[in-house]
């Protein structure tokens, strides 16, 4: 490899040298729980698969390279990865979190981790002054998502990093929506990056997974210790699927972005659509920030249909888009945040962040964009 390999070269080769035993070009699925030892304390670097596994090592090396981090640590799901980050804290510690993050995140924070003495404050992370005001002496983390789900609100990652560091806290960025191909939080000052690999990184909707990318030796030691101690690690088979998915991440993201831009621009003037939330549109209030901190706009689009009835009409009539939770796969998905991903927030919680019953979220896949437009045209008619 050249001294500075490009993104796709890393995605295809980092951590994935041909198998020394057979020459296989793909990393094998090491389906083993344990490893034979020659004598006390003498092994080939592997002792037990909760601690380490060669297929998992390959994926962790690959993902660390793509986010340009110190190390990566994979978990059984995105939620398990987020839980690992929070498990580095102790009772009494405080977290400032975006008010419009993935619905499962506040559920974990409020209904599980708060019982162990962690405290959370939720803020509109579009406004740095609100973030700053939420900090307390015990604040250890600022946890953000950008763009957010499903309102597509952005936060300025450099400003967030400056605030967190001024207060001796770490900035954690859930980078699931953009993938490392379009957004590199560590380069903008973040301390940790998390992903649900279930989405764009794997890209084929055939396995769950999560990753935490660390930037220091201390974080790497902590996360390795938590993988071993809690055990919410990713199986070798899922590691293989994600390795396979990541090889095409760049070409997939380029097409997701091209189709996302095209469909957002087509939806914007449509008479049955009251509003389109997509950072690539010039009318998006944070379009300039999107251009500055992302190298593409992706394929997540939210539209306002006006009412629950209109939303349901659209969801019932689509033929190519599938009505389903999740996002980031090759197939186009359509979902209703109020009753699906954000049901747990309750009506008041949703109203507080501006999430309405008429909103519908699209994850634009890799089908021919003409077919996706035709599908939406007939369903919106
Ligand atoms: C899906 C998702 C998660 C949770 O990931 P799972 O793999 O479903 O546990 C976290 N954050 C974001 C932004 C997501 O889209």
Through-space gap between termini: 53 Å
> How many β-strand runs?
12
How are the strands of the biggest sheet laid out side by side? 1-7-6-5-4-2-3
State the name of the first-level CATH class of the largest domain: Alpha Beta
Mean pLDDT: 97
CATH topology heading of the largest domain:
Aspartate Aminotransferase, domain 2
How many separate domains make up the residues? 2
Shape: globular
> How is the main sheet built?
7 strands, mixed
Helix content: 25-40%
Unreliable spans: none
* Computed CA radius of gyration, to the nearest angstrom: 21 Å
Instruction: Name the hetero compounds present.
Output: pyridoxal-5'-phosphate
CATH architecture of the largest domain: 3-Layer(aba) Sandwich
CATH superfamily of the largest domain: Type I PLP-dependent aspartate aminotransferase-like (Major domain)
Structure annotation, total helices: 14
Alpha-beta classification: alpha/beta
- Helix and strand run: HHEHEHEHEHEHEEHHHEHEHEEHEH
Q: Please report which band the strand proportion falls in: under 5%, 5-15%, 15-25%, 25-35%, 35-45% or over 45%.
A: 5-15%
């Amino acid at each position: 490899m050249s001294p500075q390999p490009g993104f796709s070269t890393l995605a295809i080769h980092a951590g994935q040298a041909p198998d020394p035993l057979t020459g296989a070009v793909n990393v094998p699925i090491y389906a083993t729980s344990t490893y034979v030892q020659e004598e006390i304390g003498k092994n080939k670097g592997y002792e037990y698969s909760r601690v380490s596994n060669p297929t998992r090592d390959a994926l962790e090396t690959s993902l660390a390279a793509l986010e340009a981090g110190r190390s990566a640590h994979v978990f059984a799901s995105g939620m398990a990865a987020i839980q690992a980050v929070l498990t580095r804290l102790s009772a009494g510690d405080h977290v400032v979190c975006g008010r419009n993050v993935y619905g499962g995140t506040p559920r974990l924070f409020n209904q599980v981790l708060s019982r162990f003495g962690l405290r959370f404050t939720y803020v509109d992370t579009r406004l740095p002054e609100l973030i700053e005001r939420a900090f307390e002496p015990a604040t250890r983390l600022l946890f953000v998502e950008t763009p957010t789900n499903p309102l597509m609100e952005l936060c300025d990652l450099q400003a967030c990093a400056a605030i967190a560091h001024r207060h001796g806290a770490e900035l954690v960025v859930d980078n699931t929506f953009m993938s490392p191909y379009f957004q590199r939080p560590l380069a903008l000052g973040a301390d940790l990056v998390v992903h649900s690999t279930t989405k764009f990184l794997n890209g084929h909707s055939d396995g769950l997974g999560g990753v935490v990318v660390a930037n220091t030796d201390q974080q790497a030691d902590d996360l390795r210790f938590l993988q071993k101690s809690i055990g919410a690690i990713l199986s070798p088979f899922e590691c293989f699927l994600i390795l396979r998915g990541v090889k095409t991440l760049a070409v997939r993201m380029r097409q997701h972005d091209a189709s996302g831009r095209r469909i957002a621009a087509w939806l914007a003037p449509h008479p049955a659509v009251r509003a389109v939330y997509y950072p690539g549109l010039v009318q998006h209030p944070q379009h300039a920030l999107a251009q500055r901190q992302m190298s593409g706009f992706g394929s997540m689009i939210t539209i306002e249909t006006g009412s629950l009835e209109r939303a349901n009409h659209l969801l019932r009539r689509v033929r190519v888009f599938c009505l389903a939770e999740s996002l980031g796969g090759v197939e186009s998905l359509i979902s209703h945040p109020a009753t699906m991903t954000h049901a747990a927030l309750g009506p008041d919680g949703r109203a507080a962040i501006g999430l309405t019953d008429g909103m519908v979220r699209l994850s634009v896949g890799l089908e021919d964009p003409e077919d996706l437009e035709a599908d939406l045209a007939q369903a919106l008619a």
